[in-house]
Amino acid sequence: MATFVKPENALKRAEELVNVGQKQAALQALHDLITSKRYKAWQKTLERIMFKYVELCVDMRKGRFAKDGLIQYRITCQQVNVSSLEEVIKYFMQLATEKAEQARTQAQALEEALDVEDLEVDKRPEDLMLSYVSGEKGKDRSDRELVTPWFKFLWETYRTVLEILRNNSKLESLYAMTAHRAFQFCKQYKRTTEFRRLCEIIRNHLANLNKYKDQRDRPDLTAPESLQLYLDTRIEQLKIATDLELWQEAFRSVEDIHGLMNLVKKSPKTPLMVVYYAKLTDLIASSVLLAALSVTPYDQKHGASHLELENEKERNLRMASLINFTLDPKGESREMLSRSSLLSELNNKGVMTCVSQEVKDIYNILEHEFFPLDLASRVQPLLAKIAKLGGKPSSASSVPEVQLSKYVPALEKLTTLRVLQQVSRVYQSITIGTLSKMIPFFDFSLVEKLSVDAAKYNFLSMKVDHLKGAVLFGNVNVESDVLTDHLAVLADSLNKARNLIYLPMKKQSKLGEKHGLAETVDKEHKRLLARKSIIEKRKEEHERQMLEMEREEESKRLKLQKVTEEAEQKRLAEEYTRRQEQRIRREIEERELQEAQALLFETQKGAKKKGKKPLLDGEKVTKQTLIELALSEQLKERQELEKKLQKLGKTMDYMERAKREEEAQLIEQAFQQHLVEEKIFHENEQLKAIELSRQHHAGDLQEKNRLARMMDDKVIFQQRIVNCRETEYNRLKKEREDTINQLIALRKHERETKRKMLFYLKSEEERLTRLREEEEARKHEEEERRKKEEAERKAKLDAIAERQRQREREAEEKERLRRDALLRRPTEALSRSIDPASGPHTADPVPVAAAAAAPTSDSAARGTRDKRQLPPSLIDGEDRMIVLPNPVHVSSSGVCPVRCEA
Predict the structure, then answer these.
(1) CA-atom Rg of the chain in angstroms
(2) Which of 120, 138, 165 is at the close of a domain?
């Protein structure tokens, strides 16, 4: 595989190979480039390469190469530039379509050319021989050789494109466009088989879309755009199916549309539903009464099996669901849709009042009247009239043109059955000739066929005797049937008689004779079932193991085979590429040598004509030498030609200068002559204009004199009109001024009212604002005053508390000092009593001192409580304080000594 540094090189190489006729090598080179992992980023050059690639694929009908290349290109540009992929695919389909159309045109032209060679001969001898050998006509053979391959390739193209674009939200519109073009291809060339396959492909794509819901870039069917595209595709599919008269495929298309609408739970657009129901009329029925009458009057499910009845029931339910007709799925199948129920419903809904008189007469004759002898003769002219009826229901209806003639064959069969049914009620036998005259629609063989079907489904009971030429009606038994049932009936009767004479005795069960036999049988049965289950499990396990071993061996063998094949393919590809390059190189060299020889031959041929000596006559030269000689000779010829052209140009310049000098005088004379002629022509035209103006003036004067007598009347009429208009103008002017004055006064009053209202509102707003501001200021002042008083009161309380704490500290300190002094006094008295040198001792006894020291704490506490209970005036007045530090001593006389300090 050749590698290229740039994609442009691969494109250039491919063009060179195409120029030398090597399209396969060019296609392979582009295929290697596209599938290479080296060029995964999209660029504009890749688009041009894809255009060339699909062009080569179409020319060589390489559908597989085209599919691989488009898949790789989709991977490359799907996330970057989807429009490029659309352009490539459109170009691909356009080329395939043009080639197919070109082949068809070529086949037609070839057939026409072959047909007009000899007008006296019907067929050529070779055409006769080919037709006898192959069994084909000339056109069929040419189509098979020319048209069929291109049609097959075009069909493969559509399949490939649909496979590439399926289930991708970014390529929905292109997918729908491709499907529409494929439908048109099937319609244009009547390809019914391909149309069925195409419908199945699109159906599988939708099924896979609903199955794999976690797929990347999956279309969302709930989106209006996606739903519209999918419904448009199905509607187009239904149209083509009805045009091709593929009713089974049309029915499946209707099921697809109905399933899609039920899947998304959204109502489609009105135009789509119009087309949908219009095509349903083609598929089901458009004339309800005639369609109901055309149904056979007997039940064709007579004697059918249960499975057939269930299938018929399911089909009826599906049909009813498609046309939005409500049915009970639990009801009997024969009661769902029958001829009698349809006709009764048509009567109940008043359809009989809307049909034509001919249809109404046919309905009455076939369903309600009894004319066994002339029933067909009464119906025949009515059927002839119905066959001519039809047309479009209305200009606004989307239902296509309705032709009632398609119901005539079914009504003729119904008439035949009615004739046979009514005749069977009147006659027991009738001749075949008479019966044939009574039924003019069909030959008696067809009548016999219809009667056989009716007898099969138990609608008629008749027998045709061709030996006697008669038809027998009634319960006619066949002799073989009588003999077959006779013995069975006799045996059944004898058995019943025996049972009446000898009553059958009930036999006792053998299970009661042997105790435990039922239980033993049950256990044995369960054991056998368990053994069978174990054997089956072991067998399945063994088979599974063997299958796993075979799969592993097969996988190993396939891997080895794949590796070997890949190596062999790689070697063969390299060998093929090398040989192709050598062959192409050799062909290019040979071609260049041939071109050089041809160029040298032309040069020598020109030299011989001119009488020059041939170049290297009889010598052996190389390619380079030939090219150099040819180029040098061409250069000499070019130089000689340039010299000749220069000489010829100089000669032509001299000739042109001489011609102009000679013709200058002639041109001047012609110009002067032209001036004289123009002056004469101008003077004549002026005279004509003056005369014409004079004539017009005279005519105008005559017209003025003729109209002068009406001038007074004109002035009077004008004055009257002017006066009326002036009066009317003054009246309207006064009315307008009055209206304007009223409007001005009204607007002035409104402005004054509005101004007063605005002034009142503004004053009220200012008053309310002032009151609100005053209230806020008052509240603010009160808040400030309250805060200030609170702060002053708090400061006074803090000062009082601080002084109180200071006094308490001082009192405690004094109490402590006094207590220390009292404690030192007994010690000193004791030392003085011991010491003889000391002075006279005190009169205070020790017990008294001890007693005085004992109540110290209680006295301090009482002093503190008494001090706290003093009024503030005694505490704060002139910084004076009354202190009672000494304890109170109660004497025997009841006197409490107190010491006061200021």
Answers:
(1) 64
(2) 165
